[in-house]
Predict the structure.
Amino acid sequence: MSDGDRSSPPLIDRQIWIDGEYFPWENATVHVLAHSHQRGSLIFDYMSVHETSRGPAVFRMPEHVDRLLQSAELVGLPLRCDAATIRAAILETVRRNPGARAVKVSAYLASVEVDVVPLDDHVTVAIAAYDPKTDVNAHKPTQPTRPATLKLWIEKTVRNRRKDIVPPQAKVAANYASPMWAKWSARRRGYDEILLVDERGCVAEGPTTNVFLVDSAGTLLTPAEDEVLLGITRLSILEIARSEGIPVKETRVEPDDLFGAAEVFLTGTTAGVWPVASVDDRPVGVPPPGPVARRLGERFRRITAGEDPEFASWLTPLDPS
């Protein structure tokens, strides 16, 4: 398709917050030569919005904002917008965008730059509240489908964890380039998702998910914090499991541990609790979803719907009254 054949993007009635002002969706743009576009220095965080009896509420917003600030610190981005300002802007942006199901906060160097270290170090913050299904996916030529259970591939390329490389705990655009290539390759071979390995060859995480398994003794296992993105859903599932009396352990996970597990599932903001049917074409555990995944997934659903008083504080309603 030539540039002249490209149709105009659909008009979407959304307002995006950028450095304290609101802009229509189609006007929320950045120059193609902007530093963060060319160098991959954009950081972001992504959170979900849920309908509850008290109206729309954002799931674990303080934790997401804190992680955004941690990402800025890890990559040295001089973000001058504080947590209170970002939290208030998130809530107001959701109010201005009825029907939003997700919030994406981005912080980036919008200045056109030549050097790796920008002369203009102003960090722009943008907040979009929208419904990915209707505002984004509905306008794609091919509609994505989500399988009920996953067919996984373990990416065999060992990740380099040199000390001068950005750590996995930072949600920075540059960290997603290698997983994108690996997942693209796996999808062409018929797999739904991949699991990345760390520098020791141990299981780390998916490109946008964390992995859990249940061993033969009923203990819930997940890779330790030092090798993975600190997923908010991951944290939530660990806390829910403890509340349910399920023993949990953060530990090194070998690929063979997956094949001997009673259950395997992934977690993430978009994924929720997502059962795994096979890894490297080998069935794993009981037919998914297993009892632990089902139990945790149902509790997680009740929490996000505002139906669980024990974890009511995880939801920030737009109307605090």
Observations:
- The two ends are 52 Å apart (CA to CA).
- The domain at 10-138 is CATH 3.30.470.10 (D-amino Acid Aminotransferase; Chain A, domain 1).
- Residues 1-7 have pLDDT under 50 and may be disordered.
